[in-house]
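Dear colleague,

Following up on Tuesday's group meeting, I ran the structure prediction for the two-component complex that the binding team flagged. I've pasted the input sequences exactly as they went in, so you can double-check that nothing got truncated or mislabelled along the way. The structure tokens for the whole assembly follow below. Feel free to forward this to whoever is handling the docking comparison.

Inputs:
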Amino acid sequence: MNLPPVTGPGRGHRPGRIGLFIAQALSLALLLVLAGRLWYLQVPRGEHYQSLAAANRTQDLVIPATRGQILDSNGRPLVRNHTELIVSADFHALAEEKDGGDAVLARLADVLDTPFEELRQRMRLCGPEVSRPCWPGSPYQPITLAEGIEPRMALQIMERKEEFPGISAQQHAVREYPQKESAAQVLGYLQPVTQEELEARETLRTQFSGVDQVGRDGLEFVYDDQLRGTAGVRKLAVDSRGNVTGVVEEVVPKPGMHLVTGIDATVQQAVEQALSKGIERSKGAGYPADAAAGVVLDVRTGRLIAMASVPTYDPSVWDGGIDQSTYEKLLSEKAGQPLISRALQGQFPPASAFKVSSLSAAVENGAKLTDNYDCPGSMNVGNREFRNYESGAYGSLSLHRAIVVSCNTVFYKFAYDQWLADGGTNPVGDPKDPMVDMARGFGFGRATGIDLPNEVTGRIPDRQWKKDYWKATRNDSCKRAKSGYPEQDDPQHAAYLKAVATENCTEGYTWRAGDAANFAIGQGDVLATPLQMAVAYAAIANGGTLYEPRVAKALISADGKQVQEVPPVEAGELPVSDTTLAYLRNALADVPKEGTAAGAFGGFPQDKVAIAGKTGSATVVGQRESAWFASYAPADDPRFAVVVFISQGGTGGSAAAPVAREIYEAIYGFGPEPVDPAKTEVDIKSDEQDERDGAEQKQPKPALPGGEPPSGLPTVRPDGTVQAP
Amino acid sequence: MSLYPSKHARPTLGTRAGRLVAYGMPRRLDWVLLSAVLALGVIGTLLVWASTMVSGQAGGLTDFAQRHVAHFAVGLLICLVVASVDYRAPHAYAPVIFVVAAIGLALVLTPLGQVINGSRSWIVIGGFQAQPGEIAKIALILGTAMLLGEPRDGEHAPTGRDVVFSLVALAVPMGLILAQPDLGTAMVLGAIYLGILMLSGAPLRWVLVMLLSGLLAIFAVWWFGLLKDYQLARFATFIDPTADPQGAGYNANQAIIAIGSGGFNGTGLFNGDQTSGKFVPEQHTDFIFTVAGEELGFVGGLTIILLLGVVVWRVLRIAAGCEQPYARLVCVGVAAWVAFQCFTNIGMNLGIMPITGLPLPFVSYGGTAAIAGLAAIGLVLAIHARDRGFE
């Protein structure tokens, strides 16, 4: 203590004693507050914060399940998966790069031979301001930058990993269509899920990964949930910058179920080939033949065996995202709108094929099956002359004969007489309109309820429809009634159109005699789809049961253990007595033998399998005739209903019936050998196209041996391969 | 205290240098205080290490941890040097230290100053960074203790005039720090000043006036919008941390989650997922307590709180034993500093105090803060060694 003591009298005087005590107490209080808070956070609330922390540092990566295949009734794949190489990028890894990953993307653009700008756009996350190409999924999901790349490119990327941080190449399943264009509209297609779809379909939201696609049409749409399976989830540990540091847990995806359809790939192809040939024939005869449809139903179950629509397209154009020009082409009139299935979305006047309904209506309304009726070449209904096709006159004939030769005037008379009985232009309070009711009874005018989307209803015009239609078109009709059609070149046609417009303007709301007459032969405003026709004829064939057609036969889990059968659905009974139906079947059986389809079926072994059917030749103002042939076989013990329609293809007997004949030949093995699209047993996992060639066989082979569709289901073995029933 | 050279032992050293050293050696060391500080230093090093290591990468001390050890070593050396010197020597130089600190604070506002984390509280010369605000705390303690702890003849306690002088001593560093702005340090200065004033024996009305004006100042700052937006946002999220979970409330939320998830025993040192995931920003400095909370759990967190409590308790105990008012007030200033800063820092980690950007004394990473804190402990040790009250 050499330094002098501090001056001052402080010795002994300690003014802060109480103050120091207070300071100590205060410090202790603060410590207790801190300790208490720490205890509260860590002990009673510890678990709460542990769960928050877990959510903090994990991110879910959705692993899409392998989509189920769509199989034909023999287990042949109509749609399967094949793997292709894709290149994807880790959003966060690229964002970590100094230049935001531009240099990496530029190198990648070089390797992939794609524009750098495109890769950069695909790296952006979709948002209100950002439109495609952009990434619709979560940034934790690998962002797909290129699909279907060559293995050479993938190798380049994987070998130079240090040059491509965050970029990886891996295998990815895409839809493959081994039957090419076959049944394209029935199968449908996949497209990346949209925001609207996510909102509309609750179950999708939890499964959406961004790489996921959703069925947009056909079976892919209707059975989307079952085909999709359940996506797996990989919980990734991440740090605060989003870098993945490990895998916390993993729920493996549950692959989608396989959809077994009643479609027979061989019959399907036969229908398509017969339709194209038919179109060629019609074109050769000078008809436009712009579209066609064919339907084959199992009349005993209502199962669809084949359904084709021409023009068609190769559904593989949807793989990996369709480009705009291809998409526009698919929708264009010029390409014939191949996305539209004419079989259930095309509606046409059913013409004489509709007479089965009108005959039933007449008979159920009192006309005697034993009587004979006059069939003049033409008759006056109202103020207009209604004629037979090509004005043939057949004198007095039975109803059987009226069907066989397709007499119109008999049906005109039925309709006209009923119209008069109902009060004519001044109808009684509750007009009977039996033909309208019967048409509905045959299932016309409403959707058949098939398990395919966007089916149209056709049209059964009745008195109410006339009124509504008149209200909707009155203004236009009345304008035309005054101005006429000066743009028409043919003055006669223009005058006719003007007269129609005048009539429509002044009395378009009334159910006129002409409407009733046209209705009876399936003309005028009556519209039906080829599928409705097939359902109606199947009902005639099977004794009166209207089926809701089903494409699906069963859903089988990927391991084959679970099988959910899709049972046939009866929609109702024809309101027709068994006697009338039997009479009708007799008449229809004679059409291909001696009636309007006799020419088409000349030489067909009817002694082995008799065909029953009815032709129809629909006329629309301003168009050429469209051909119908609605039929079933065998006539004595029906199994299949076959309906063929060719728009502007000619008459039913000359254009449609030969197509139906070729379809029957393929089914029963009478004609030339159809090309076998695939062997009966196909390894699902094989990526290779089946190359087995059966075309050398000379002996025609029936597509459906014994004239029966397979009764059992194909089975899926535990290893994932499919065995024919 | 046999470890210390007694008066009898001194001559045996013989040489002049030996005499100087022996002369400089503190006669008494508060081993409890020093041990607590050393323990905090060790824990701090481990926590800095844990908070700055890259997950999944093995290896020794991280750069930050190594630098932390270096800072602490330098601080400890300064602490022992200060402890060896008679506490009245820094007292003599208090005006010099005060002026140096004021110049440092002024330099911060020149182009030499650098903005780090929204406050301009650093001077960077060459590769060397320093926070003059930390030095200002010591300067304020010495200055205020001198003005209030050395009553003139005939007076037992500081008068109103002394208080006015001391206010000037407060106003200079306070003004410069608020200009940065560094609200946290300004609050610490206020706490130090109020602590010293209250225990100085100054007239009670002055103490009350100062307390009231301190509260008024906080209110005025908030009311008149003197705070920067980020500071306001911090205060807003202090009231409701979930208000803006990705923005200003993020720190507060993540800190609570990290601490809460530690549970009673913690996840184990170097095993904290929140820590290795770097969810809490600034976790090696202002939010280092979250690392303790997560990895060492309630046990570790409480240990830190208790050790800091020991430091405050020992410093106050030394203050109580002081003969000299000046010495007592220096101890009180240091205690106020440590207590206030610890409570504010841990409190903001635990979500019961607003986020103000203060490091945890003796634990957080930061060179100037470590050195200043240890120097302050050195001062207290020097007082303990030499004040007549301990003879």
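Confidence is low (pLDDT under 50) at residues 1-13, 679-698 of chain A.

Cheers,
M.
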